[in-house]
Amino acid sequence: MCPVLSGPYLLMIEKINELMTRVASLQASSAEEVEQLRVQYLSKKGEISLLFNDFRNVPAEQKREVGQKINELKTLATDRIAELREAVEAKDEADREAGIDLTRTATPLPGGTRHPLNLVKAQMLDIFARMGFTIADGPEVEDDWHVFSALNFAADHPARDMQDTFFIARNPADVLLRTHTSSVQTRTMEKAQPPIRIVCPGRVYRNEAISARAHCFFHQIEGLYIDRNVSFADLRQVLLLFARQMFGPETKIRLRPSYFPFTEPSAEMDISCNICGGKGCGFCKQTGWVEILGCGMVDPAVLEACGIDSKEYTGYAFGMGVERITNLKYRVKDLRMFSENDVRFLDEFIAAK
Ligand code: DAH
Q: What's the 319 CA to ligand 1 centre distance in angstroms?
């Protein structure tokens, strides 16, 4: 039997079908638009909820069918609006990310630089390491024996004078701040037998008035080589190689006779002025040469004082200031700048890494 189709039923079915078509093709381009759609269709006063008001008038035998259709419509609308919300949120997220440079560092950190003295020290040690020297270390707070007596300084040598040396205790052990890294020679020779081939970097102290050209502390690198048949020619060759690697292959060296208590013979070494190339300029006082280090053959008395047989072994030693070498490379006019930690000065060495 065909059901009698009454007015309210047909109207409802038509309305529901029309809403189904509309809901299926809903569009939104922002979260606000999605919310508007939710209010329009799903809120208490929304179009779908209003259908339930008319539902009352639907004849009893069609209520079931109409009720099912309204529920279908409600599910369709709920799903479609959720879909639109997801799409809009994904788009917002993508837009946000597109506006951000994800490769940027979180906070700009000012990059530090290596201190020029460390830079040059590392370069110097590297050159000697390639020639077979290993690094030796010793204390800055020393005693008279390791700094002076074992190194052949006479009891009345002026270097022991209060003018030069910072004494920590006069008696009983004469504790003092080392005035040169030659003290590491003493300590190494006391402990080891030849062959010994070391470089000793470190800080040294002298009781001097601080000025642009002098400081109460500075840095040295000491070298020592002891073995059978070590000659002055070996010393000269090692220093020539060092000078050329440090200051360029055209660099010339010259050795002038000098005096140190712990070497015999002793010499001071000049390099051809690395500013004018040896022609003569203000920096080298028109001489074409600049002094860079002291050196010599280790005095047999020093070998004996440290327990090494001076009839069997000979050796050479050299010592130089790291500030001096750094000045020659980078023209630092005032020694005080090395220890003032002014970042404007330190920043000048960014490129010198
Ligand atoms: N110790 C010396 C100084 O501080 C430098 C020096 C000169 C070291 C000659 C040596 C050397 O090893 O042989 O002035």
A: 4
At 57, the pLDDT band (50, 70, 90 cuts) reads confident
Lowest mean pLDDT among 108-117, 134-143, 304-313: 108-117
Distance (Å) from CA 219 to ligand 1 centroid? 12
Beta carbons of 230 and 314 less than 8 angstroms apart = yes
Query: Which atom of ligand 1 lies at the shortest distance from residue 223's CA?
Result: 12
Residue 101: how many CB atoms within 10 A of its CB?
A: 5
| Residue type (1 letter), 208 | E
> CA-based angle 107:113:117, to the nearest 5?
165
Is 218 near ligand 1, meaning CB less than 6 Å away?
Answer: no
Q: Name residue 164's amino acid.
A: D
Element housing 36 (H / E): helix 31-42
Give the amino acid at 28.
A
From residue 38, alpha-carbon distances to 30, 34, 195 in Å are: 13, 6, 91
Are residues 210 and 336 in contact, defined by beta-carbon separation less than 8 angstroms?
yes
Strands (DSSP E) contained in the chain are 134-135, 141-143, 167-169, 175-177, 196-205, 217-227, 253-260, 263-272, 289-298, 314-321
Pocket of ligand 1 contains residue 174 by CB under 6 Å = no
- For 329, other C-beta atoms within 10 Å of its C-beta total 16
What's this model's pTM, rounded to 2 decimal places?
Answer: 0.70
Please report the pLDDT score of residue 333 as a whole number.
Answer: 82
Helical axes 7-24 vs 47-55, angle rounded to 10° = 160
Q: Which of 182, 208, 242 to mutate to test the pocket of ligand 1 (most atoms within 8 A of CB)?
A: 182
Rounded to 10 degrees, the C-alpha dihedral 194/265/317/293 comes to -170
